[in-house]
Amino acid sequence: MKKNIIIGVASIVLAFGAIIGLAKGCAPKSDISQEAATTQSKTTKPKKKVKKKAKQNTEIFRPYKDPKDLRKAGTWKKKSEIKKYPKIKPNEQDLTLRVSLKGNRTYLLRKGKVLYTMLSTGGIYKKGKSLTPTGTYKIQNGRGDSFFNYNLGEGANNWTSWSPDNVYLFHSVPTKADYSYNLKEAAKLGRTQGSHGCIRLSVPDSKWIMNHIPDGTRVVIKDN
C-alpha cells in the first residue's frame, strides 16, 4: 500500500516537473532580445552635416580700415559716411580716387591720406578677372545726370567718366528702363561685385563726385 502511494506521488512530481520544463521552453529566451529589437527599430541614421559655404571676408582685401561712421553695406540712398563731405578746391591736384574691387570700397585720398570712404561695387569676376580694368586713370570731362544702355538693359544716374571714351564710369546704383532703381542690384553696394565694369556708388556719393571732383584727378583701381 505504502509502496503504491510513493509511486503515485513520484509520478505526480515528475509530471509537474515536465509541465514546468515545457513552460520554460515556450517562453522567450530573454527579454534582452526584445529590447535589442526595440532599440534597433528606434535607432536612426546619423544626419549628414551640410557644409555651408563660407562667406568671403572682404575686409582682408581693403587697403584701409573702415571708419566708425561708415554706413552698413547695401545703403544706397544716403552718403556712405555720416560726416560731411570734405571740402575740395576746384583745381586741386593732390587728390586720388582709390578703388578696391574685392574690398567693395572707393577711397578719396589727399596726399595719401584717406579723406572719405565710400561703399562701392565694381565689375563681376569672370575666370578670376574683374570686368573693371585695373590700373591708373584720370577723371575725364565727361559727366552727366543719367544714361541708359539698351544693350545691357541698365542705366544709372550721376555719371563721371574715368576713361577717355566714356565707357567706364563712376555712377549711382543701376536704374531700370522705367528710371526706377534696381533694388536687387542696389543691395550689392559695398557688399559684393555686380557691375559690367563701371564703379557703382550710392546716389549721394555719385552726385558729389560728379559735382566736386576736378578733371584730371588720379584714379587708381586695384583688385585689393
Please give a structural write-up.
Strand 7 (143-149) and strand 8 (154-161) form a beta hairpin. Strands 6-11-1-2-3-10-9-8-7 form a 9-stranded mixed β-sheet. A two-stranded antiparallel sheet has the order 4-5. The chain is globular, with a radius of gyration of 39 Å. The protein is built from 4 helices and 11 strands, in the order H-H-E-E-E-E-E-E-E-E-E-H-E-H-E. The longest helix has 25 residues, at 2-26. 23% of the residues lie in helices and 25% in strands. With 224 residues, the protein is an alpha+beta fold.
SSE pattern: HHEEEEEEEEEHEHE
The count of strands amounts to: 11
Whole-number radius of gyration? Answer: 39 Å
Helical content, roughly?
Answer: 10-25%
What characteristic shape results from the CA principal axes? globular
Q: In percent, how much strand structure appears in the residues? A: 25-35%
Multimer state: single chain
Taking the sheet with the most strands, its summary is:
9 strands, mixed
Overall mean confidence score, pLDDT: 84
Number of helices in the DSSP assignment: 4
Given as residue ranges, the uncertain stretches (5+ residues, pLDDT < 50) are: 1-43
From the N-terminal CA to the C-terminal CA, the straight-line distance is: 117 Å
What class, by secondary structure content? alpha+beta
Spatial sequence of strands, sheet with the most strands: 6-11-1-2-3-10-9-8-7
